[in-house]
Task: structure prediction
Amino acid sequence: MGYQVLEHIDNGQDAICFAEKEQIDLILMDIMLEGDLDGIQTAEKIHLIANIPIIFLTAYSDERFLKRAQVTDPFGYVLKLFEELNNSRRGLIFSARTR
Result:
């Protein structure tokens, strides 16, 4: 696919600093991160400094997390789930806007 992983970062503040310094095409962001900022807060801050598409990676399909994440205008979601999702949630979770 032509993509290279630039860095694996486990906390929000380091991710923000990295996004400020590097040319990034796409971020895979776990919602649960180490440190004071979660992935959603980190994505909000990154969007203030750069227009980088973010795909959330999460084990949480809970509406509370999804609604919070939706505010960041994510490119999409990848769920770490092993159970079948019901149809009403599938549309919300796997919808990604086209750019």
